[in-house]
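Example 3.2
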Amino acid sequence: MASVKNLKKDINYTLGDIIGECYEWELLNPSADTTNSQAIIDEAITTFDELIAKVHAKDVANKRQHFKGINAELETKAKALVAKINSL
């Protein structure tokens, strides 16, 4: 990982794209029930808040390991959210 700045951008862009996909699904399926897609959007926002809070944590002993863990967590949570979008 190059920098904390790039990690924050990755979090923002990844979860923003997931939210955008949910909105696109809602536009393409106007007659469908949107409660599931809204739940995915809410989960993406919660994930964003949690990951950004972890990035800004000050009491970290090994910063490199901490940021690698955040990056791995972003990847796993993003894959789970994409799987939920695909099941809509």
